[in-house]
Design brief:
The complex is a heterodimer. Chain A is mainly α. Chain A is built from eleven helices and no strands. In chain A, helix 7 packs parallel to helix 11. The longest helix of chain A is centred in the middle third of the chain and has 31 residues. The two termini of chain A are 26 Å apart. In chain A, 47% of the residues are buried. Chain B is an alpha/beta fold. Chain B has a single domain, classed as Rossmann fold (3-Layer(aba) Sandwich), CATH 3.40.50.300. A six-stranded mixed β-sheet of chain B has the order 5-6-7-3-8-9, with helices on both faces. A three-stranded antiparallel β-sheet of chain B has the order 2-1-4, with helices on one face. The chains are: A mainly alpha, B alpha/beta. At the A-B interface, helix 1 and helix 5 of A face helix 2 and helix 3 of B.
């Protein structure tokens, strides 16, 4: 186990060195929150029953998940494969699986860190308080992360080349980031558009998180089931189609 | 009789109908430095891939320490180190971190600062691997092949891209390790390198064995004066002699 953490730490340090991760995963959600809070923090966001700050906090708490799942995970894995690192690791007593789990944990830690920074800013500087149960929110957040990570891992397994992976991640990352209310508040979009965005995987997660944050636990069953289904389905595809080279 | 360190028997592999490794057989004894020689594209790297279990053979078998690497991957690679051609590194890893990462794969790794010193990389510990010269990176990959204290090490084209000084450094260290009993399997197309390091060589052409023996035997069999001329002779390039 000690050896596993030694490897983990090497990988984690590389995450902190990556300007993309720092910019998109840690800085962007924080800056967006500050802007929204200053511009429209206490106004009601359309008919959602939340203020813009409350709505933005929930949505932005998934940006780290989104960046990790659709950028860090597939990029790291496909890169390790195309550079022959997985092949080289195969020729050692520990399998490449170790490297992959290290990288997935690193991505999870970055997502958690992103949300932690966001929470501190929202609570300390803008007086954000959650109506719902914080632990329930944490559980819903972890489930959302798990299901998004399974999608990212599936992409990493299915894409044979860096090029196809770049296309796939862009198709997942940008629409979800822009339209599921992560960066642009969903409430500013027309109703029909919101209807579509809600059915994107991340949209389902954000819906669930919004309900939990408001303390409405009566409509969480469907999103929870969907997220669990995504995790099982994509996780299975990821494992079954995985290749070392 | 003692089991050889590596035993290759009638190994055959074809890609898209083209035979790349053709009924290849040889043994490598413990403590020996064995060189697989041939042109680019002669099937040297494929042979290594087959022995290491990275590719499945169409026919024949390859055993390392009496085991099939594809079936006993963990057992084999506890005792075998490899340097593969074209392995790159993560874009922002340092030399020291690469050593820590690879050392973490083994239960009793070698002392990496000492290995780095031996290969003249001691001052580059904090440097990013991406900033190293081609030769320095090549030496690092040899260090990483040795980091698990292996009994056998596979080195694929180990000194390609190295300058004269770096090549001599690598040779010197490998000779020291050989004296400590390390078995080395290497591929090269530098005959000078084979002469300096190898106890035994096997020359292949289009995946087929042309000749095998000690350096002296190989030169004697060709009637030439050195290994490079012998190699050209066996390759059927007499007009170049």
């Amino acid at each position: 186990m000690k050896r596993f953490w030694r490897m983990y730490w090497v990988e984690q340090k590389m995450f902190f060195r990556s300007p993309d991760v720092i910019l998109f995963n840690l800085t962007m959600p924080l800056v967006t929150l500050i802007l929204i809070a200053i511009i429209a923090g206490n106004q009601n966001a359309a008919d959602s029953g939340l203020t813009y700050l409350q709505s933005a906090y929930v949505a932005l708490s998934t940006v780290g998940i989104c960046c990790s799942a659709f950028m860090s995970i597939p990029i790291t894995i496909v890169e390790c494969r195309s550079r022959g690192i997985l092949r080289r690791m195969y020729c050692s007593p520990c399998s490449p699986a170790r490297l992959l789990s290290c990288d997935t944990i690193c991505s999870g830690v970055m997502a958690a860190l992103s949300t932690l920074l966001l929470t501190i800013a929202a609570v300390v500087f803008f007086g954000y308080r959650m109506r719902g149960n914080v632990l329930a929110y944490l559980a819903a957040w972890l489930l959302t992360m798990l299901s998004m990570f399974s999608i990212g891992l599936m992409v990493a397994s299915l894409c044979r080349t860096t090029k196809s992976m770049n296309v796939a991640t862009s198709l997942l990352y940008f629409p979800m980031l822009l339209f599921s209310g992560t960066t642009i508040p969903a409430e500013v979009f027309p109703a029909w558009f919101r209807g579509v965005a809600r059915w994107m995987p991340l949209g389902v997660g954000i819906d669930l998180l919004k309900s939990v944050s408001m303390g409405c636990y009566n409509k969480i069953l469907v999103p929870v089931m969907i997220l669990i289904a995504i995790t099982i389905l994509c996780g299975t595809v990821a494992v079954k189609t995985f290749r070392w080279e | 009789m003692r089991e050889p360190s590596i035993r290759v028997k009638n190994l055959t592999k074809a890609f898209h109908g083209r035979t790349v490794v053709d009924d290849l057989s040889f043994d490598v004894e413990k403590g020996q430095v064995f060189g697989l020689l041939g042109h680019n594209g002669a099937g040297k790297s494929t042979t290594i891939d087959l022995i290491l279990g990275l590719k499945a053979p169409d026919g024949g078998s390859a055993k390392i320490l009496g085991m099939d690497a594809a079936k006993n991957r963990k057992q084999v690679f506890k005792r075998v180190g490899v340097q593969l051609q074209h392995t790159q590194y993560q874009s922002n890893i340092t030399v020291e971190e690469a050593c820590i990462e690879y050392a973490s794969l083994y239960a009793a790794p070698a002392d990496y600062p000492q290995l780095l010193e031996g290969f003249g990389l001691g001052t580059l510990r904090k440097s990013f691997v991406s900033k190293l010269s081609g030769g320095e990176r090549q030496k690092l990959s040899v260090v990483l092949a040795l980091i698990g204290n292996p009994e056998i090490v596979f080195l694929d084209e180990l000194t390609t891209g190295l300058d004269v000084v770096a090549r001599r450094e690598v040779w010197r260290t490998l000779k020291q390790l050989k004296n400590q009993g390390l078995t080395i399997f290497l591929t090269t197309h530098y005959m000078e390198e084979a002469e300096a390091l190898c106890d035994r060589v096997c020359i292949i052409k289009s995946g087929k064995k042309i000749t095998e023996g000690t350096i002296e035997e190989t030169i004697a069999a060709s009637g030439q004066k050195n290994l490079e001329d012998a190699y050209l002779f066996f390759m059927g390039e007499e007009e170049l002699l």
